[in-house]
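In response to the reviewer comment on reproducibility (Comment 2.3), we provide here a single inverse folding case reported in full, input and output, so that an independent group could reproduce the run without further information from us. The structure tokens appear first.
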């Protein structure tokens, strides 16, 4: 549904966006979910009038989460989700000449990155009175991202064919806590329709990744020319998100708006790239819209009428500008939720969710006379499984 979720309040879904939704967990139940996703990326860019492109695939888990009641009106939720990931590899060639050494020959430049940062979230949701809930969550971020820059001379000045190279590696290690608050209010709630309004606030905070930089030459000794470490003054943004969600037995419609304040904490993190343009942080705005249609959840004759069909769109801005040029992001999503039916009712509310997403980021807009922005197009496939146990905490009367 385009990533909508701030106001979603459903006993059969673990809400990863708003801890206030944990309070909806019915007593004597347990909800567990996990998801997987595969992505295909295609990147293209114009450099010195020539088109450059690269493609790669990634596969990772999307989330592992559970939700359970603590007491009436008080629920606990836990989730493990990827927060940020890096995966790319690109190379290009350039003839190099030096005023002293003369024509050195073709030089190959390779840029590669991989790794991810994971979020662990533990929270409580409390329904203070009927239709109104608040929530609080602690979030922990950890992971490593590695960026590799390699320069190789493919033909030395004597023409002997010897390859000389140098490799630079930057490793970013993250280990930090932050917090989140949430609220949900349902001014309309009956058997025919439910209207819920939700909001969250993330307090942000210092991320301060530990950066290790190493440069090695390509001789037989792998000589280390540089090896140093420092802290990068990077902060996670304060975030405000609001959403609205309306659902009936057949139709559900939702919308979210998310604002992230990147500049106030990172306004001084402006640097000059190797291509000669400024890279700076900017505040972001994202809008999400989604819809779900279920023909008849109680139809025992047709399985397809019990399925939930979903669609959504998302549009927003990226958190950095390149040479003063903004980068926009967009996506279209389609999905289906397939309920599982098991004798005894233990998994009666369980489901398998399938989804596809097609999106993009950037454009071919020129940054300067030499390079354009990178235009990225991606395709994502996701699989999720939710297991709902409604009798797990009931003591049996008979052995």
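Designed residues, in position order:
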């Amino acid at each position: 549904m385009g990533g909508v979720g701030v106001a979603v309040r459903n006993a059969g879904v673990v809400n990863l966006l708003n801890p206030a939704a944990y309070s909806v967990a019915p007593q004597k139940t347990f909800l567990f979910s996990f998801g997987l996703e595969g992505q295909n990326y295609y990147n293209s860019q114009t450099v010195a009038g020539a088109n450059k492109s690269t493609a790669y695939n990634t596969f990772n888990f999307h989330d592992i989460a559970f939700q359970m009641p603590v007491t009436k009106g008080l629920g606990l939720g836990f989730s493990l989700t990827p927060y940020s990931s890096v995966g790319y590899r690109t190379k290009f060639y350039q003839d190099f000449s030096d005023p002293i050494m003369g024509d050195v020959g073709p030089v190959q430049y390779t840029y590669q990155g991989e790794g991810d940062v994971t979020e662990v979230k533990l929270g409580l949701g409390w329904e203070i009175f009927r239709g109104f809930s608040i929530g609080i969550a602690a979030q922990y971020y950890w992971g490593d991202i590695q960026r590799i820059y390699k320069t190789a001379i493919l033909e030395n000045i004597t023409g002997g064919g010897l390859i000389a190279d140098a490799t630079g590696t930057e490793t970013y290690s993250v280990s930090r806590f932050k917090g989140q608050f949430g609220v949900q209010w349902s001014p309309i709630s009956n058997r025919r329709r439910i209207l819920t309004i939700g909001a969250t606030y993330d307090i942000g905070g210092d991320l301060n990744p530990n950066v290790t930089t190493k440069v090695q030459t390509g001789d037989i000794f792998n000589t280390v020319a540089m090896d140093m470490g420092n802290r990068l003054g990077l902060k996670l943004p304060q975030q405000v998100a609001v959403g609205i969600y309306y659902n009936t037995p057949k139709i559900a419609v939702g919308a979210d708006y998310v604002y992230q304040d990147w500049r106030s904490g990172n306004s001084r993190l402006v640097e000059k790239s190797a291509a000669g343009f400024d890279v700076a942080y900017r505040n972001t705005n994202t809008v999400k819209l989604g819809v779900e249609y279920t023909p008849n959840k109680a139809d025992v004759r047709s399985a397809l009428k019990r399925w939930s069909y979903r669609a959504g769109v998302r549009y927003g801005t990226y958190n950095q500008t390149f040479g003063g040029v903004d980068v926009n992001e967009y996506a279209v999503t389609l999905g289906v939720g397939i309920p599982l039916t098991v004798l005894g009712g233990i998994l009666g509310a369980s489901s398998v969710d399938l989804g596809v997403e097609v999106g993009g980021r950037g454009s071919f807009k020129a940054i300067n006379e030499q390079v354009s922005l990178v235009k990225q197009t991606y395709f994502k496939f996701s699989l999720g499984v939710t297991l709902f146990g409604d009798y797990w905490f009931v003591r049996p009367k008979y052995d």
